[in-house]
Amino acid sequence: MLTGKQKRYLRSKAHHLDPIFQVGKGGVNENMTKQISEALEVRELIKISILQNCEEDKEVVAAAIVKDTKAELVQIIGKIIVLYKESDEHKTINLPV
């Protein structure tokens, strides 16, 4: 689990990122979570945008992605989900203690 301090740090790092995935009408599927997992391994911190035509609630979408990718939910702000997962091979983010 991330501490409040770590989440604040990650939010500041994520501020300048652009969303690299979009969840639309189809919602979250297996292929998408696989791609998100791969992106998290390379980048550690990503943003996902929820489109207006997405029929599921943003909390439900975030929970499904977190469960399937085993990532940490940093925040949900508006229609943007910020996720973090420590990388095994590409570790670049050093979290404050």
UniProtKB/TrEMBL annotation:
Keyword RNA-binding part of the UniProt annotation: yes
InterPro entries: RNA-binding_CRM, RNA-binding_domain, RNA-binding_YhbY, YhbY-like_sf
GO molecular function, one term: RNA binding
SUPFAM superfamilies reported for this sequence: YhbY-like
Pfam families: CRS1_YhbY (PF01985)
Domain CRM: 1-96
UniProt keyword list: RNA-binding
Record field: transmembrane: none
NCBIfam families: RNA_bind_YhbY (TIGR00253)
Name of the protein described by the UniProt record: RNA binding protein
Species the sequence originates in: Lederbergia lenta
